[in-house]
Specification:
The protein is of the alpha+beta class.
Length: 818
């Protein structure tokens, strides 16, 4: 077949007669599962290598190939070859866990999609060694994982092998995976996914089972053992069908799809519904923010749903991988829209523009990317926000390269009568049409920076098929479709989105005709500026235009904080104010928002920077001086509209994917007389040691018991058996007479915290801490609020001092003073 880039109309016979296209809006196909069999996906996934990026999307992958992904052995000891257990034929050596499989999986996808010979050769080394090292009993991979009874790292490497097989037809892969799964099937239930990551991420092993089933061949009865293994894997995986089984961000982004995957063999619609339910719960509690992610700066924590809470780069990558799988298996186009949200609004800012660094965490409101500790505002201490290539962001350093290739692979799928464009952007696809002919399509577009999609056909012989183009959920008004055959008149249709039959799973624009080489389809998707309100986050607002959400343009000051010339550690600090509330007319919220063109999009340039992004929006804002940094992060939002005396100013907004420093969830501005006063929060409690959040002590939320993990808590973890303290300081002296404490104790779930052995209250007398004259006993029981009255004191500080039990840490869920 001729190259897809060469659509030569002159090669067509002049006698060809143009055919009238049938253009309609339709719902997506539905998959039909039958219990006891493995249902085909609603949309057939194309083999790896069939879809390739073009334009700005290819630039993202090339930057990673020339940067961290292609040169990772320079900065990661985990993927160096000497003594590596993944390369040893007997599985002996070091570095046996997830890092190599993470990297190799992304490396295979990048190599195939870019058709990069060097990356392909590197991937072949690792895949070849993995397959060649299969033991006589079927085990694949490092022996250390077998000894630990841990299948998790192997699950990822198996996925890399699956992608390799699809791209190369390597004959070793299918029999090797079959032998390995026979080994897994021989494990008794007690030894199958017993705990840890493998238990919450068991869906990744189920994915391997379902991939192998149709490829193994032979009668269905001879492959029944695979479905029996699939049922056991589902039963042994954490119970995602019952709700959120784990609030770790990456675990959730992988595990939530498990019930929907199992639906393919169970046929139970409750399993499909369970995946939607878990996603909806996570987003309702922690994802009421722009950017398509949920706040889990390691774990999603009760009380931490503000847009300053961040998501791991790993979580973004795994979300995109999951969304692709879910779109294909269910036909539900909402997952494709969610993939666009993450890919355009969150993922670009996780990397440096040159692809030589990333950071662990990205948030919708993030105004300072430095090397400092931001705990407990962020869950983990240490450097989490500066851009680096080294091992400080160990998991993301290896897994981040799954993100863009997952988006690209999910752009196209096959239907029973043609091809479906699912996730939009510049791309090309080459596959087999329903009639057996080879067919290619080039998607030439600057989407998401434009509303126009142009598809050009490449086929040696005429092809009768349907081309389906997903109509995004944000589309309103009239979709314009223009078919321009190389021979014959153009055909233009305008279809009102609202007039088409409704389908909660989304809509396709369907264009069915006999296609010939060089025929084109032009689609224009109606878009307008919209203001989205987030009621769960104090009625804050975000500005949206098509699939893009916009951030305040903050001038960025990049500075080197370490590293090497090739792999610098970089901080990004604000050079302009960031604490703006958006001026909004309640009667016409978008009236003051004007879209402006930025620099022209260059085919080979990186568009995801503040200076190069081709779209901007002019708006008006008022400064909120009281909105300040807290723990080095943007302060949490307060109720809108905000009262402020600051004058209205012209401000510029840019797509949040291009903003490394960003405010994408704005408070709404009032004026000097109208709105809520923004209050400066009190100084945080001080403590001898901080784990979790000392602010939890005075949030006014009483627990249901001492093991209540649904609300924030403060602990001194991991200190044990020591004397510790936490204290309040007051701006002015306060007269106090009593205190209330509710202890944290997770002993019933086997945790390491217990109620204290003893405690007391001290008050600050000048510069000296003195014990109060207590009138009640200092209670240490669990599941109770302990009140201690004392002789009145007037003081600028009160201290809670504890002696922890030997061998245990401790903490409190609430500490009130009065």
């Amino acid at each position: 077949m001729r190259p897809l880039d060469v659509c030569v109309a002159g090669l067509l016979a002049a006698s060809l007669v143009a055919q009238e296209a049938r253009i309609t809006l339709v719902g997506p196909p539905a998959a039909h599962a039958v219990p006891g069999a493995l249902a085909a996906p609603a949309l057939a996934a194309l083999p790896h290598g069939a879809v390739r990026p073009r334009g700005w999307l290819r630039v993202q992958q090339e930057l990673l190939a020339r940067g961290m992904a292609g040169r990772l052995p320079e900065v990661s000891s985990f993927v160096r070859k000497d003594g590596n257990a993944w390369l040893d034929r007997e599985g002996k050596g070091t570095r046996h866990w997830e890092e190599v499989p993470y990297w190799v999986r992304g490396l295979v996808l990048l190599a195939v999609q870019l058709d990069d010979a060097a990356l392909r050769a590197e991937a072949e080394v690792w895949i070849g060694a993995f397959l060649a090292g299969q033991r006589d009993d079927g085990w694949l991979g490092p022996e250390a994982n077998r000894a630990a009874n841990d299948l998790w790292p192997n699950m990822v490497m198996l996925q890399a092998a699956m992608a390799w097989h699809e791209a190369t037809a390597d004959p070793r892969v299918v029999p090797a995976l079959a032998r390995f799964l026979r080994w897994v099937a021989a494990r008794p239930d007690a030894q199958l996914l017993p705990g840890s990551w493998q238990k919450v991420r068991g869906a990744d092993l189920l994915l391997v089972v379902h991939w192998l089933h149709p490829r193994l061949g032979g009668p269905a009865e001879e492959r029944r053992w695979l479905l029996e293994l699939g049922a056991r894997i589902h039963a042994r995986t954490a119970p995602w069908s019952q709700g959120v089984a784990d609030w770790h961000g990456v675990n959730l982004a992988q595990g939530f799809r498990g019930p929907a995957q199992f639906w393919r063999q169970s046929g139970d619609p409750a399993h499909l519904a369970a995946t939607h339910r878990v996603y909806d719960e996570a987003m309702a509690r922690f994802g009421q923010v722009p950017g398509g992610m949920f706040g889990a700066d390691e774990n999603a924590r009760p009380g931490y749903g503000d847009p300053r809470q961040a998501a791991e780069t790993c979580t973004m990558a795994e979300f995109l991988y999951s969304f692709r799988l879910l779109t294909e298996l269910s036909g539900d186009l909402r997952w494709a829209g969610r993939a666009e949200d993450v890919a355009f609004n969150s993922l670009p800012a996780a990397f440096t523009p040159d692809g030589r660094g990333l950071h662990y965490l990205t948030a919708p409101n993030m105004v300072c990317l430095d090397v400092e500790n931001h705990a407990p505002g962020l869950q983990n201490g240490g450097c989490m926000l500066a851009y680096a290539a080294d091992e400080r962001y160990r998991c993301c350093q290896h897994n981040a390269f799954l993100g863009w290739p997952s988006y690209v692979q999910g752009m196209w799928a096959r239907t029973v009568d043609g091809l479906a464009a699912l996730q939009h952007g510049p791309s090309q696809v080459e596959t087999t049409a329903p009639g057996g002919q080879r067919v290619g399509v080039v998607a030439a577009t600057a989407y998401p920076f434009t509303d126009r999609l142009r598809y050009t056909m490449a086929c040696e012989t005429p092809v009768e098929m349907a081309l389906l183009v997903r109509v995004p959920e944000w589309c309103e008004g009239v979709v314009r479709a223009a078919v321009e055959p190389v021979s014959g008149p153009a055909q233009v249709h305008e279809l009102a989105v609202g007039s088409a039959p409704g389908d909660s799973r989304g809509r396709f624009l369907r264009v069915a005709r006999t296609w010939r080489w060089g025929d084109t389809l032009d689609v224009t998707l109606p878009r307008r500026v919209r203001l989205r309100t987030w009621p769960a986050n104090h009625e804050s607002v975000s500005v949206e235009y098509g699939p893009l959400t916009f951030s305040l343009a903050i001038r960025e000051s990049w500075r080197r904080a370490g590293g090497s010339d090739a792999w610098p550690l970089q901080e990004v600090l604000p050079d302009t104010p960031w604490n703006y509330a958006l001026v909004v007319d309640p009667k016409d919220p978008a009236a003051a928002l004007e879209v402006r063109a930025g620099p022209a999009l260059q085919e080979t340039a990186q568009p995801w920077t503040g200076s190069a992004v081709p779209l901007r929006i002019s708006a008006r804002g008022r400064r909120v001086p009281e909105w300040q940094l807290r723990y080095g992060l943007a302060g949490t939002l307060q109720p809108s509209p905000v009262r402020t005396k600051a004058p209205a100013e012209e401000i510029e907004l840019i797509p949040m994917g291009a903003a490394r420093l960003r405010i994408a969830a704005f408070p709404r501005a009032g004026d000097a007389e109208h709105g809520h006063a923004w209050t400066l929060p009190p100084e945080p409690p001080e403590a001898s040691h901080v784990h979790d959040d000392p602010e939890a002590l005075r949030d006014g939320v009483l627990p249901k018991d001492s093991d209540d993990h649904s609300i924030p808590r403060f602990t001194w973890w991991p200190r044990k058996g020591s004397v510790e303290w936490v204290q309040y300081r007051f701006a002015t002296p306060r007269r106090l007479t009593a205190t209330d404490v509710y202890w944290f104790d997770d002993g019933r779930r086997g945790g390491g915290c217990r109620v204290p052995a003893a405690w007391r209250i001290l008050w600050l007398d000048g510069d000296t801490w003195r014990p109060v004259e207590a009138q009640d006993a200092y209670g240490v029981g669990a599941d109770a609020l302990h009140t201690v009255r004392f002789a009145p004191v007037t003081t600028r500080g009160l201290r809670l001092e504890v002696r922890l039990q030997d061998g245990f840490s401790g903490g409190a869920l609430e500490w009130a003073v009065r």
